[in-house]
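Open question from group meeting: does this chain pack into something compact, or does most of it stay loose? Before anyone orders reagents, we agreed to write out a predicted structure and look at it together. Recording both the input and the output here so the notebook holds the full record.
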Amino acid sequence: MDMRRETPQTTTQQAVNQNVTARYLKKASLQALLEKLFEGQTEFNIRMKEDQWCFTAPRKLEESEIDALRDE
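Structure tokens returned:
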């Protein structure tokens, strides 16, 4: 009798810590962008540290995604 069990393969996504300069960037705008990009998620642990916004997201944001906020 074969007692082996198959385990379903799962894709785990590692959260990424990221820092971006705070210049011309508001916390509320960053929060809104992250919620738009990562639908259903609202907690990104956004905090200010040494004139940089630090946050945790499912993937690293591209500079172009962040720069678009600064242009608003």
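Observations to bring back to the group:
DSSP finds two helices and three strands in the chain.
The helical segments are 27-37, 63-70.
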